[in-house]
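Side project, low priority. Logging it here so it doesn't get lost.
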Amino acid sequence: MHKNTAHLARIKSVTQKYKLHPKKRLGQHFLTDPNILVKIVEACELDSDQYAVEIGAGWGAMTGFLAQIARGVLAVELDTDLAPGLRETFAGHENIKLVFADVLVLDIEQELRQRFAVEGKIRYKVCANLPYYITTPILFHLLEKATAMESAVLMVQKEVAERLVALPGGKDYGVLTIMVAWDAEVEMLGKVSRNCFYPRPGVESAVIRVTPWQERPWVVDSEVTFKQLVRTAFQKRRKTMRNIAAGFFRVDKVEAERKLLALGIEPERRPETLSIDEFGKIADGFSE
């Protein structure tokens, strides 16, 4: 605890020295509550052989906490105005590597290998307080490009977290829920008050854990068809699956109803009531 207090005091001193202020255009809301910082780092469940990738290092509060546990921390920050302060704060910390770049164009695994001179398999987890305006692009970038990522603990807008963990039948269940669940398991770890940030955001936040599937629970004949069907269905979420299937697969409504019933799916159901497995059945069943 003493280390954490000294670290946060140093950050306060450096931010004052360099006259650093959050930038609204970058969605900067820095997490300042030490108890929440500790809980997030603990939720990452890092061990001394793993690397941590932090997206949005900000003023470096979480960076320092992660560095106490992880073998190394790759701290990625878009705002180059924060560079002098971060470099001063972490001068002499050999296990912290600062990268000033847009994470959406960064090859995270290549960067880890180069910065830490790693050969062979690399073990790492992601930990981040994400700018809310770019949460979804970053999440999909991680799932598509960070193929060796073991898990990610992310601070996101509470509304987004609720959509990610939503179940079929609820108002929050939709394309985002299914597309992320296709690649990973998502857990809600807890909600965070807006009072834990500086400046105070206009929304509540939540911490989630995203764990890519080692083996996906679902198998479909065509992932492309499955995903196109899901997107099309939720664009027409007020329509029945009979009408949606008829239009998507270019068959008449009588045939669409017959096939849905054969698959055990009531034709009058609407998209938000269907599970991933049921969307998969429709995608495969109509493509035969």
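Brief comment: Residues 110 and 251 are 47 Å apart (CA to CA).
Revisit when time allows.
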